[in-house]
């Protein structure tokens, strides 16, 4: 079963909030067929710890306005890889160095990409996913 409309909507809201803070390589993956715990992984990058924290705050605020509350957050104090679990979606905000090293997109490459609005950043390696 594919991610539901609510999960897709929250992913777009979170992606837009991240983009407003200059997040890069924004990608949403439909993991609903592989995981029972969540529908969508949203993965975004920040160039430094300060930017990662700003992205985390913006995403949290935007999703709170949509009625979504984080079940848990991990990595906030280090601001290298912050995992934000909202139940329907999990947001990964990674420092660009950690993003390259852990390569979540390659790990989940068999999951479909969730379409995000055209005005959001396109992942640099989107051609690698084809």
Automatic annotation (TrEMBL):
<comment type="similarity">
    <text>Belongs to the Iojap/RsfS family.</text>
</comment>
<protein>
    <recommendedName>
        <fullName>Ribosomal silencing factor RsfS</fullName>
    </recommendedName>
</protein>
<keyword id="KW-0810">Translation regulation</keyword>
<keyword id="KW-0678">Repressor</keyword>
<dbReference type="Pfam" id="PF02410">
    <property type="entry name" value="RsfS"/>
</dbReference>
<comment type="function">
    <text>Functions as a ribosomal silencing factor. Interacts with ribosomal protein uL14 (rplN), blocking formation of intersubunit bridge B8. Prevents association of the 30S and 50S ribosomal subunits and the formation of functional ribosomes, thus repressing translation.</text>
</comment>
<dbReference type="InterPro" id="IPR004394">
    <property type="entry name" value="Iojap/RsfS/C7orf30"/>
</dbReference>
<comment type="subunit">
    <text>Interacts with ribosomal protein uL14 (rplN).</text>
</comment>
<dbReference type="InterPro" id="IPR043519">
    <property type="entry name" value="NT_sf"/>
</dbReference>
<keyword id="KW-0963">Cytoplasm</keyword>
């Amino acid at each position: 079963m594919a991610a539901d409309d609510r999960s897709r909507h929250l992913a777009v809201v979170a992606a837009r909030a991240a983009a407003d803070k200059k997040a890069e390589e924004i990608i949403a993956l439909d993991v609903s067929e592989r995981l029972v715990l969540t529908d969508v992984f949203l993965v975004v990058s920040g160039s430094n710890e300060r930017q990662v924290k700003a992205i985390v705050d913006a995403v949290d605020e935007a999703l709170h306005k949509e009625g979504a509350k984080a079940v848990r957050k991990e990595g906030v104090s280090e601001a290298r890889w912050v995992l934000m679990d909202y139940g329907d979606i999990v947001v990964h905000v990674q420092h660009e160095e950690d993003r390259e090293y852990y390569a979540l997109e390659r790990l989940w490459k068999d999951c479909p990409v969730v379409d995000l609005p055209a005005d959001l950043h396109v992942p640099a390696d989107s051609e690698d996913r084809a």
